[in-house]
């Protein structure tokens, strides 16, 4: 049996199982506009004119776990490189943009913007990537995870990893209602968002889940089916070293356990050291991995024209070769 035939068979089983499970899951209800946070509102407004169906879901039914202290209200502010960014996030959410016109379940990709775990970019490495995915028939999901860092003895990624683990469970549980393929749920992250997605790729087993189950959605797997890291930050500690962050759980990385990984970075980016060492670890563990290191380029750039922004072309090609996207 070919790899593609095997994936199609697994996909059919997953869709059937989720269709049955959906009958027992709560209905997916879009968050009412009068309950949108400032960050959710700005993301929705930027997607309003696109030919997509948009749904916003709060990640947690009540208070998010492991909040050590109160924060100020969520705010949207100007970003240094243009556009806007979100900070002071205490109510994480996913905003799901599914392209119209598809009669079959689509792949879905959770988009994790960067911002050093202090804020979340909206335009660069966020909505621009969602639009790019939508144009290729993929549902894009803006991940509004908790920032800034909580400190108080928590690792900087602790609360964001709780949020994205739970987000994958929600997407998989409600896949039939959202019309997405539960066997093609991936994640892409930029800079700190790339670090978060790497953590998700290596921290999805039951013993690695960072929160206690809160409802039936948490019976679903939080393992992504594929991940992409664009200029991932903080993979080595200290940064200019070959010492990978122990929280990546190198001993738990294994073929057919850790999902396939796509990585893109530039030699001009100091974080490329970590990206390279992470690729070598995955290679040693026989996990499917592809690394593109470009001579020139900025850090964690989203979608734009230019000779130094080739990762989107290669990522699309990689998704086709892996059977995530249908080849034309």
Principal-axes geometry comes out as globular
Give the second-level CATH assignment, the architecture: 3-Layer(aba) Sandwich
- How many DSSP E strands? 11
Report the CATH superfamily: Alpha/Beta hydrolase fold, catalytic domain
Which fold does the CATH topology refer to?
A: Rossmann fold
Low-confidence stretches: 1-10, 12-25
Largest sheet: 8 strands, mixed
The multimeric state of the shown protein is single chain
Kindly report the spatial arrangement of strands forming the biggest sheet: 1-4-7-5-8-9-10-11
Please identify the top-level CATH class: Alpha Beta
Helicity range: 25-40%
Question: Compute the gyration radius: what is it?
Answer: 18 Å
Number of helices: 8
Question: Can you describe what's shown?
Answer:
- The protein is of the alpha/beta class and 328 residues long.
- The chain has one domain: Alpha/Beta hydrolase fold, catalytic domain (Rossmann fold, 3-Layer(aba) Sandwich), CATH 3.40.50.1820.
- It contains eight helices and eleven strands.
- An eight-stranded mixed beta sheet has the order 1-4-7-5-8-9-10-11, with helices on both faces.
- Helix 7 links the parallel strand 10 (261-266) and strand 11 (289-294).
- Helix 4 (158-173) packs across helix 6 (192-202).
- The longest helix has 20 residues, at 3-22.
């Amino acid at each position: 049996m070919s790899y593609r035939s095997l994936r199609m068979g697994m996909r059919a089983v997953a869709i059937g199982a989720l269709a049955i499970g959906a009958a027992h899951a709560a209905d997916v209800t879009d968050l009412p506009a009068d309950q949108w946070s400032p960050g959710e509102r700005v993301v929705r407004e930027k997607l309003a004119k696109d030919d997509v169906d948009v749904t916003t879901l709060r990640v947690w039914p009540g208070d998010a776990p492991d909040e050590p202290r109160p924060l100020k209200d969520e705010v949207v502010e100007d970003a240094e490189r243009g556009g806007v960014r979100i900070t002071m996030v205490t109510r994480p959410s996913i905003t799901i943009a599914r392209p119209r016109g598809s009669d079959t379940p689509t792949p879905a990709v959770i988009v994790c913007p960067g911002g050093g775990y202090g804020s979340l970019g909206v335009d660069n490495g966020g909505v621009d990537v969602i639009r790019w995915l939508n144009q290729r028939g993929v549902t894009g999901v803006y991940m509004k995870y908790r920032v800034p860092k909580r400190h108080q003895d928590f690792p900087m990624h602790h609360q964001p990893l709780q949020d994205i683990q739970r987000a994958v469970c929600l997407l998989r549980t409600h896949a039939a209602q959202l019309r997405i393929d539960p066997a093609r749920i991936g994640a892409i992250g930029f800079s700190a968002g790339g670090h978060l997605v790497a953590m998700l790729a290596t921290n999805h087993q039951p013993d690695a889940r960072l929160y206690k189950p809160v409802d039936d959605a948490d019976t679903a797997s939080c393992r992504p089916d594929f991940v992409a890291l664009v200029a991932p930050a903080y993979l080595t500690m200290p940064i200019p070293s070959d010492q990978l962050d122990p929280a990546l759980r190198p001993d738990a990385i294994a073929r057919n356990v850790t999902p396939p990984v796509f990585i893109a970075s530039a030699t001009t980016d100091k974080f490329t050291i970590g990206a390279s060492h992470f690729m070598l670890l995955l290679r040693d563990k026989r996990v499917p991995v592809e690394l593109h290191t470009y001579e020139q380029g900025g850090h964690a750039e989203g979608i734009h024209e230019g000779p130094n922004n080739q990762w989107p072309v290669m990522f699309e090609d990689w998704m086709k070769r892996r059977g995530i996207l249908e080849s034309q």
